[in-house]
């Protein structure tokens, strides 16, 4: 009896397995059925995957943005540093060019006045409070400086020695507000030379003032002005500037000539002292 039951169970199990296998074969042989079955399953799993992957994508994108931001910041800092270094180098280069230009002109002055004593020095003190009044040099009596010497920079007259010690000299600039110690000058006009005295400076117009002219000869714009040396102390032939305008008057004593200075009185780095 037991054998009959076991045989039936075995037969039923084998038959069920065969039917299941046949069913599976039928299902996978039918592409349309498989597609209809797998499409919703794929769509569902895709949505599930999107839901679970979204936070990771956000984190990844945020990380990439932070990395890009940091790299951009680092690059900007490097660029700022490079620009700052380039500006410093450009400033240093401009300073060197200006100093080279001043020294070249100082050498030309020394050659032009080789028959006289010439001493070139770098400006050591120039206060902003007295910028147009005076400046100081680190040369003095021990270096052969005398009180009658005129000061030249960039090829033009800038002042004369005012105070003198063994190792330092104070230069009173021709732009000072107290006058210029009445430096004698010569104006070369088309009608002949006219002599006068350098007496002042118009700060608003950056013009030197010449008065006490010896003649009423015609003077024109751009006529050359140089030192005359007729005081018996200073050197003749130093460039002062060019005539800018003439204020004519009926009385010769009131006639004034305004001169654009040869030297740049704002920018004086080296000074050459010239004298006997």
From TrEMBL:
The chain crosses the membrane at residues 9-28. Belongs to the MreC family. Signal peptide: none annotated. One of its GO terms (biological process) is regulation of cell shape. NCBIfam families: mreC (TIGR00219). One of its GO terms (cellular component) is plasma membrane. Keywords: Cell shape, Coiled coil, Membrane, Transmembrane, Transmembrane helix. The keyword Membrane applies. It comes from Streptococcus sobrinus W1703. Pfam families: MreC. Residues 123-274 form the Rod shape-determining protein MreC beta-barrel core domain. This is Cell shape-determining protein MreC. It comes from the Bacteria. Involved in formation and maintenance of cell shape. Residues 79-106 form a coiled coil.
């Amino acid at each position: 009896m037991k054998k009959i039951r076991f045989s039936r169970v075995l037969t039923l199990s084998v038959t069920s397995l065969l039917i299941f296998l046949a069913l599976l074969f039928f299902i996978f042989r039918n592409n349309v059925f498989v597609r209809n079955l797998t499409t919703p399953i794929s769509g569902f799993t895709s949505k599930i995957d999107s839901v679970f992957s979204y936070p990771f994508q956000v984190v990844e994108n945020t990380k990439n943005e932070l990395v890009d931001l940091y790299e951009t910041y680092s690059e900007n800092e490097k660029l700022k540093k490079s620009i700052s270094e380039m500006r410093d180098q450009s400033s240093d280069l401009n300073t060197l060019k200006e100093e080279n230009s001043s020294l070249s002109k100082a050498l030309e002055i020394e050659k032009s006045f080789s028959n006289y004593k010439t001493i070139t020095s770098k400006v050591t003190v120039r206060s902003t409070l007295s910028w147009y009044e005076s400046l100081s040099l680190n040369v003095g009596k021990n270096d052969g400086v005398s009180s009658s010497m005129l000061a030249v920079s960039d090829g033009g007259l800038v002042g004369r020695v005012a105070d003198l010690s063994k190792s330092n000299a104070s230069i009173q600039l021709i732009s000072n507000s107290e006058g210029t110690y009445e430096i004698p000058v010569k104006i070369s006009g088309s009608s002949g030379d006219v002599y006068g005295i350098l007496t002042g400076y118009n700060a608003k117009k950056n013009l030197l003032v010449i008065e006490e002219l010896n003649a009423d000869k015609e003077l024109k714009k751009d006529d050359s002005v140089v030192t005359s040396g007729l005081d018996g102390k200073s050197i003749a032939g130093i460039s002062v500037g060019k005539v800018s305008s003439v204020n004519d008057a009926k009385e010769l004593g009131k006639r004034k000539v305004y001169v654009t200075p040869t030297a740049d009185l704002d920018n004086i780095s080296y000074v050459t002292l010239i004298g006997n």
